[in-house]
């Protein structure tokens, strides 16, 4: 958990440092370090779960009253899921990085794809009668495979920018003139020039006739100028909307990270930036998790299997509702660090007070 919290905070702060820099050196360096650390931390925890699976389950159960069949199924499920720990850790860090960059679309697309893979895996494996890939073990295999599928999609998403063609970068104005993203200002100037030439046709110097026609042209000139101004503003807004690029992490690491870099040890100096988050975050998470483990221990050791199953259902519903409020924490981690990275000023203090008030209001509303 400390990796996810640290990644969101460090990435959002690095983004502020990279403001105005196209290559985003601080952001990409922090992201690569996070992915490398996540792979190793996930591997350590996965190996630990596989080795101590039996002891962990017995510690939670508390006695030998549970059915051997259920205990065996739980063992297989835990060890298979442990194989997916490296992928789960890397996915979590990548998702946290996207949130730190205020990109909510990329994780949604990747995790939706993984959910589809998980569903298909459940349909294929759970119904199998084979003891190693069917039943609870099949559900574990489906989840583990979906995690590695999500890892593959996420890494490819981060390393490859979308393919573009001249047709996709070029649009046409109402006059049939091509306008690309890089030529919007030139297009606006050409548009205003054409409007000026059209208005000159109505000016007194280009009007042939008696005094009445010249007077009419002078009356129309202010009106024509106002129309020109309105049309120019509308055109500018249209171009700004057309060329606006939404926040996306797609291709952020293109040319900056190879597949083999995922297996490399992170730089010690860069890795130590994550250290301040280890103790406070782990202590907080351990405190929360210990409460649920204690409840599971009491129910499984004193009441029985049926009550334990009911407890798990209730706990699953609780976990499904927690993200609704937990999103506020992610929002704060995305918006507050960049403000702290700014130089101390009255504007910075005012911004911190404003975002603090908004977070308090949102917390009260969601908590209610």
How does this structure look, described?
The longest helix is centred in the C-terminal third of the chain and has 36 residues. The radius of gyration is 30 Å and the shape is globular. It has 14 helices and 2 strands; from the N terminus they run ααααααααββαααααα. The chain has a two-stranded antiparallel ribbon with strand order 1-2. 73% of the residues lie in helices and 2% in strands. A hairpin with a 5-residue loop joins β1 and β2. α2 runs antiparallel to α5, α6 packs antiparallel against α7 and α13 runs antiparallel to α14. With 368 residues, the protein is an all-alpha fold.
Strand content: under 5%
Note the run of SSEs as H and E.
HHHHHHHHEEHHHHHH
Quick one: how many beta strands?
Answer: 2
Tell the overall outline. globular
User: Main beta sheet, described?
Assistant: 2 strands, antiparallel
Give the % helix.
Answer: over 70%
N- to C-terminal separation?
26 Å
Q: Provide the gyration radius in Å.
A: 30 Å
User: Structural class, from secondary structure content?
Assistant: mainly alpha
> Strand arrangement, largest sheet?
1-2
Uncertain residue segments: 165-185, 202-209, 239-246
The averaged pLDDT comes out at 77
Query: Tally the helices: what do you get?
Result: 14
Oligomer: single chain
């Amino acid at each position: 958990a400390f990796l996810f919290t640290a990644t969101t905070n460090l990435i959002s702060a690095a983004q502020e440092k990279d403001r105005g820099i196209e290559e985003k050196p601080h952001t990409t360096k922090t992201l690569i370090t996070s992915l490398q650390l996540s792979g190793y931390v996930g591997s350590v925890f996965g190996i630990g779960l596989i080795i101590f699976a039996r002891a962990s389950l017995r510690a939670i159960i508390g006695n030998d009253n549970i059915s051997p069949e259920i205990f065996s199924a739980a063992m297989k499920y835990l060890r298979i899921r442990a194989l997916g720990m490296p992928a789960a850790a890397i996915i979590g860090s990548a998702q946290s990085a996207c949130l730190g960059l205020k990109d909510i679309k990329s994780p949604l697309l990747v995790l939706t794809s993984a959910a589809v893979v998980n569903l298909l895996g459940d349909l294929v494996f759970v119904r199998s009668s084979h003891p190693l890939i069917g039943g609870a073990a099949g559900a574990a295999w489906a989840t583990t495979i979906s995690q590695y599928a999500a890892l593959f999609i996420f890494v490819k998403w981060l390393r490859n920018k979308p393919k573009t063609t001249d047709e996709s970068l070029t649009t046409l104005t109402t006059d049939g003139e091509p306008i690309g993203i890089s030529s919007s200002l030139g297009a606006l100037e050409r548009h205003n020039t054409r409007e000026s030439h059209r208005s000159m046709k109505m000016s007194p110097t280009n009007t042939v006739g008696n005094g009445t026609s010249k007077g009419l042209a002078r009356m129309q000139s202010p009106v024509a100028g106002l129309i020109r101004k309105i049309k120019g503003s509308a055109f500018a807004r249209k171009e700004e909307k057309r060329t606006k690029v939404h926040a996306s992490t797609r291709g952020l690491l293109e040319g900056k990270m190879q597949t083999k870099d995922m297996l490399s040890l992170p730089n010690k100096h860069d890795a130590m930036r994550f250290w301040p988050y280890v103790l406070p975050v782990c202590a907080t998470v351990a405190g929360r998790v210990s409460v649920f483990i204690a409840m599971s221990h009491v129910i499984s050791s004193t009441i029985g299997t049926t009550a334990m199953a009911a407890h798990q259902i209730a706990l699953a519903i609780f976990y499904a509702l927690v993200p609704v409020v937990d999103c506020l924490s992610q929002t704060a981690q995305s918006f507050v660090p960049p403000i702290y990275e700014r130089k101390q000023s009255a504007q910075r203090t005012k911004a911190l007070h404003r975002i603090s008030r908004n977070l308090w209001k949102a917390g009260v509303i969601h908590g209610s």
